[in-house]
């Protein structure tokens, strides 16, 4: 992954709904523009607010986070034979599409005094604009873009958003899309326990781990990782009983205000000091892991007060329910299943993990025409689909619930529930094993794909049901 290959797809997810959009199947209620030819030279095929899971950018730069999770949106365009996209501006609106002036985000600020925060554009895991940029470049054919907008504390349920896209040929405006947050975090991690321990420990200072003569708030955190997962940040918040912000914040990096959150795993100190680079992760973890958290007590940690812990990962963010310090019945314990399935693969490796269980592939995933190819039978069966092979027609059919996908070897044409769509790369055979583009199959079956330095995770974590566009 890359953008800084560490910033966006090493530390950032792809949530791409392109396959089903291309098929003409609305995915999750995304807002669509008409498919008529427009004077701008570009057609909007899909625009959707996905989630607010990540802190990737600041108000004016994509080079570092700022401590506030960003709005994350998906944009699918047809640029035809080629068109220059000069700028994209995102604005807020009400349910009728009327401007509300709650915020404005831009890829380019044309002059001094021009207002608006940065709208960062990502394509294939790489930033198109790391800051304000006069032109985003020339694009051709179907293009899938991700948009990140640092929240100005105005992104909330009930708001709508639309884009104004300026090209070398004209301007096009998208339909509005509603604010949305996914019902289940994409992160393959569960907080199994978050509990208070004591107010007598002295293990960390305000900026470096070690005794400083002042006692700490001591918490216990138990996490369960379904896949090997990179933890980007851990943040302890003071809250009220409902989880609303209260006094005190402790964190592992300086992406925002707060004192150091000291973390130990057994006898190993995980955070000897603030991470010097706000993009540097806490570490990668797998399986069941227990941590001790130490928060230097500035007077706000006391019995009867409430606290939550937030775990930001490459794939998303999970947050505990509030814990009441000093109350034996006030701790957070969660033994429920993760609530979604996950499949882990790696380019060039036959190792695989399905829902924490290790497995071995007959042939390793590889890239073809820039697309990630995976063994169809393994993926299909792991997703719970029935997989059929017709040797005479060289046809693969996947069936799961009400979805049927048909692909023919060496052809870029496929069918979803009888509708013809075009693939990024054709199905192919390697070592007697049939391989297909992972993004097409998984997302056509309503799964999501994430990439991290050659590692691939597929999950069926669901987005919240979006509001229908009026």
UniProtKB/TrEMBL annotation:
Protein name listed in UniProt: Copper amine oxidase-like N-terminal domain-containing protein
Keyword vocabulary terms for this entry: Signal
Top-rank taxon, per record: Bacteria
Coiled coil location: none
Domain Copper amine oxidase-like N-terminal: 354-456
Gene3D superfamilies: Copper amine oxidase-like, N-terminal domain
Keyword Signal: yes
Record bears the keyword Signal: yes
Matches recorded under InterPro entries: Cu_amine_oxidase-like_N, Mao_N_sf
Originating species: Paenibacillus rigui
Signal sequence bounds: 1-33
